[in-house]
Write a sequence for this structure.
């Protein structure tokens, strides 16, 4: 009855271990919908990696709201990727020692240290992505603020690089130089928290900065890196034969020719038909285009569901928990209860079930 | 905000005399060593009219064009600790542009990293380490990093340490600090203690063999040069003419100056009358450099080179210098690289490898600058 993510457990776990092995100091990222697996499951998997002796000390979450989901299932440090802001609601004080805050503004540094003098912090430096982070000079001032206090717990510097576009090392070198210039007081080796470096770039970086500890933050490559271990299926809930001209659906559309209507699990509640934009347009724009134009003007649109390897058309926009597909006559008609494949964007899909063998 | 003005060589020298030290490549005398370059003396003056900085600019003309590369080797001499370097460099660039510069090249005399002799020794022994940068440095200088950061911010471009411009100064050098961590001076004993056993043994051996080190005069430059040409043949490098050293010697030992900024000395090590090693040293205030060296192929076992180095080190110490500078090294630690012998020789003195911020270019005319780079690459 459900939209199901089926995981080839042995293969997936072997992949997780191979990624952890190849990236010592890896910081698994568990945020959002948990890449389809849910946050809790990823937290347990991170713990499993750690228990198996991999160098995993810290799990990264996206937001403060995600902390409770992982804190009980993972016993190491928790790095919050979204920078701390004064309006962040306080979290369970028993977690103070485990949570590492990202601080991206000088004003926030002062305020956080006032509220929580023993807070563990990572300073974020802006990259060419221009999202969050301090400028070089703000970082220098942060160094001054930190040098004035003797009880601070600085955990290094964070860089959030854009997705691979050429070589990042020149930029990383410049930004790390800004961090050196800040002369922040550190207890151990300075740590660089970084994402989106290729393995080759990471290796070169470690050679150029042997006094730094590089901690690569890895999400997609870790959890979704071996797509062959993952399969997404929907259940066929109902099958109705239709003739050309038969009316069906919420808006009483008519069938263009004879065939079958398939009612399958998976709807807007799961994220079906609400593909996140990959490029220039906004979600709103794309959803609107989809609803307005797609079905009525040019007939049916392609759905992410496929039967016998062929992608099938939506008969009407997806419902909340189910979708209607149109199967023209001549095609094999699956039976109620059969499973059919669905292609989804994992980071935008909520599964009813995750079955790991 | 300091303003810039052109000054005389004397004014330039008088200002440098008030400082603990400066690179000898930034002294007025150095302009005479490079007569094929047009030179200019500049000073930064603060609102109260006090001189607060200086520069020796060497202008190198582009072939057939009335455009110049303005080169400030190991300079300018300004307050590099400022976090407003633009205030110093902008008026400089404006002035040089007015003088027809298509690009400016500077060499901030600012340290960025240091490594100890023991670290380098370990690096050479480690087959996985091929470059100095692969060893965690003893120190990464925040002050140096701020200079680098600001130069990037101001649009300057770092020039690779190796290859390229012939006049380029080395980014990596080897230095023996003559003061200890608490700034108290080293003693001859503590300096010897910092050297490796071979260096100590060689110094002792030269003494036992009766090697005598003396300071020569300008008249002895011919003897130095003969040995230097011999060394050049043996070690396969192109020697400079005697005239070059005569000019340098006179330029860095200003005749009749009331307060000479720089001092160059000629050192001669003799064994039973035979010249076995000869060197040139330079000192500007508290910084002493080993500049040029030559050694005989005969009688190597009397260790004239070690003896003459030790004499120069002791002389620098006696003159109150805080640094004895053995000048450039390459950053290779690859045991199979031919350059590694040089660094090994220097590492034996104790001391440390020091990385400077390197040389930085600011293109003013991008087309000419590009053409200039292509010209250099093809040479």
């Amino acid at each position: 009855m459900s939209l199901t993510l089926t995981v080839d457990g042995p293969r997936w776990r072997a992949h997780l271990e191979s990624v952890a092995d190849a990236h010592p100091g890896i910081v698994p990222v568990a945020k959002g919908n948990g890449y389809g697996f849910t946050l809790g499951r990823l937290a347990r998997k991170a713990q499993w990696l750690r228990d198996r002796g991999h160098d995993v000390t810290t799990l990264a979450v996206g937001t403060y709201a995600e902390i409770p989901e992982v804190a009980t299932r993972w016993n190491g440090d928790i790095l919050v990727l979204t920078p701390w802001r004064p309006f962040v609601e306080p979290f369970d004080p028993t977690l103070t020692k485990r949570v590492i805050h990202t601080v991206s503004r000088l004003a926030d540094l002062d305020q956080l240290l006032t509220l929580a003098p023993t807070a563990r912090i990572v300073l974020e430096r802006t990259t060419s992505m221009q999202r969050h982070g301090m400028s070089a000079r703000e970082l220098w001032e942060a160094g001054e603020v930190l040098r004035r206090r003797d009880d601070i717990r600085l955990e290094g510097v964070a860089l959030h690089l854009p997705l691979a576009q050429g070589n990042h090392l020149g930029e990383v070198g410049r930004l790390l130089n800004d961090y050196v210039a800040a002369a922040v007081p550190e207890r151990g080796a300075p740590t660089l928290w970084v994402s989106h470096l290729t393995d080759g770039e990471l290796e070169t970086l470690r050679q150029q900065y042997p006094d730094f500890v590089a901690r690569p933050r890895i999400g997609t490559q870790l959890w979704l890196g071996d797509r062959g271990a993952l399969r997404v299926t929907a259940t066929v809930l109902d099958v109705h034969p239709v003739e050309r001209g038969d009316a069906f659906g919420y808006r009483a559309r008519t069938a263009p020719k004879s065939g079958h209507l398939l009612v399958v699990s998976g709807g807007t509640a799961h994220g079906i038909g609400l593909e996140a934009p990959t490029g220039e347009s906004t979600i709103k724009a794309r959803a609107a285009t989809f609803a307005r134009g797609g079905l009525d003007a040019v007939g049916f649109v392609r759905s992410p569901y496929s039967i016998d390897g062929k992608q099938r058309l939506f008969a009407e926009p997806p419902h909340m928990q189910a979708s209607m597909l149109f199967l023209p006559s001549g095609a094999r008609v699956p039976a109620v209860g059969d499973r059919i494949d669905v292609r989804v964007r994992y980071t935008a899909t909520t599964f009813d079930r995750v079955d790991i063998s | 905000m300091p303003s810039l003005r052109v000054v005389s060589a004397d004014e330039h020298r008088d200002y440098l005399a008030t400082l603990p030290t400066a690179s000898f490549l930034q002294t007025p005398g150095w302009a005479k060593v490079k007569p094929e370059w047009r030179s200019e003396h500049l000073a930064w003056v603060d609102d109260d009219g006090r001189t607060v900085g200086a520069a020796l600019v060497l202008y190198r003309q582009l072939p057939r064009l009335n455009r110049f590369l303005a080169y400030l080797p190991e300079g300018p001499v300004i307050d590099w600790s400022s976090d407003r370097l633009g205030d110093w460099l902008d008026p400089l660039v404006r002035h040089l542009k007015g003088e027809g510069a298509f690009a400016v090249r500077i060499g901030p005399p600012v340290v960025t990293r240091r490594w100890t002799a023991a670290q380098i020794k370990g690096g050479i022994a480690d087959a996985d380490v091929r470059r100095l940068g692969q060893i965690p440095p003893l120190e990464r200088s925040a002050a140096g990093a701020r200079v680098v950061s600001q130069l990037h911010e101001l649009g300057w471009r770092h020039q690779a340490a190796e290859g390229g411009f012939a006049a380029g100064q080395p980014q990596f050098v080897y230095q023996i600090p003559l003061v200890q961590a608490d700034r108290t001076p080293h003693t001859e004993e503590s300096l010897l203690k910092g050297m490796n056993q071979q260096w100590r043994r060689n110094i002792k051996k030269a003494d036992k063999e009766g090697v005598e080190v003396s300071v020569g005069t300008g008249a002895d430059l011919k003897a130095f040069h003969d040995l230097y040409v011999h060394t050049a043949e043996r070690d396969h490098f192109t020697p400079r003419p005697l005239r070059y050293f005569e000019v340098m010697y006179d330029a860095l030992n200003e005749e009749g100056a009331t307060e000479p900024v720089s001092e160059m000395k000629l050192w001669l090590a003799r064994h039973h009358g035979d010249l076995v090693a000869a060197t040139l040293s330079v000192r500007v205030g508290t910084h002493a450099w080993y500049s040029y060296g030559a050694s005989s192929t005969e009688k190597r076992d009397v260790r004239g080179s070690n003896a003459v180095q030790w004499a120069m080190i002791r002389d620098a110490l006696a003159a109150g210098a805080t640094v004895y500078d053995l000048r450039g090294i390459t950053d290779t630690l690859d045991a199979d690289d031919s350059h590694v012998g040089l660094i090994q020789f220097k590492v034996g003195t104790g001391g440390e490898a020091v990385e400077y911020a390197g040389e930085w270019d600011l293109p003013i005319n991008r087309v000419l600058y590009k053409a200039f780079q292509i010209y250099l690459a093809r040479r």
